């Protein structure tokens, strides 16, 4: 350590790193008891038909209400749960709760559950899911597992084996956040996949960034060519929805249709025969 300024900067950086590490340890510590303390809950976000607004299913998103910190974002605690291995127990809890809930619905809507790489490549994951389906009575056709491409490259052989088992049970697989991370088109061919979810970063830029619009069109073309349905994530405006409709995207999810919320808020959607979500007035007028 040479200069005075350099040393100061270094110390500041060091203190900052220390605080980050302590913060992480503290969150990991608290995560260990979060299930037992009932600090987790699930919220549900509708997935709808672009042209009619009819609901096809819901994605399940985990929420953690920390007793002192309040709501902790998944982007902060999921990586800690993954690195510490706690995601195995937490993910099992999510899967069981989600299947239990979906089994009570009066319509055969799908339920999408996010599964991390650690879970997918853990021992007996497919058996665990099969047991949960048996236990809850949810038909496998109604469960959709969302995985990211990053999950596949961790241990491709193992991931492939597990995905094949899940598929043979009748469960479907959606490729989440498509187009980001360790994306490779060959993943769609090498791994059994039933649906592509276009990442919300592309959707949110379709009207400001021509490259994003080109990528969305390309992914839709890929889906058409491979015979894979494509769902757009993070649709917030009627302009984005019109663009998707025009480009032939048939399914969407995002704040425009509904924010993730406790399932109680969606009760009417769970029982009616034909239910249409509110899209925007501009869209209704254009049709
Ligand atoms: P994801 O699976 O890609 O989930 C979509 C995220 O986008 C959710 O964030 C959702 O609240 C948000 N979102 C949906 N529509 C919109 C929109 O119109 N605008 C904007 N700005 N955001 C929108 P959330 O709930 O914070 O979850 C973040 C990530 O955490 C998820 O990304 C998923 O990777 C992970 N995650 C959440 N729950 C679980 C879980 O139970 N298990 C695992 N392994 N990961 C989970
Ligand atoms: Mg997801
Ligand atoms: Mg996603
Ligand atoms: Mg994401």
TrEMBL record:
Signal peptide: none
Residues covered by the EAL domain: 24-274
Official protein name in the record: Diguanylate cyclase (GGDEF)-like protein/PAS domain S-box-containing protein
Parent-protein start and end of this portion: 514 to 800 of 800
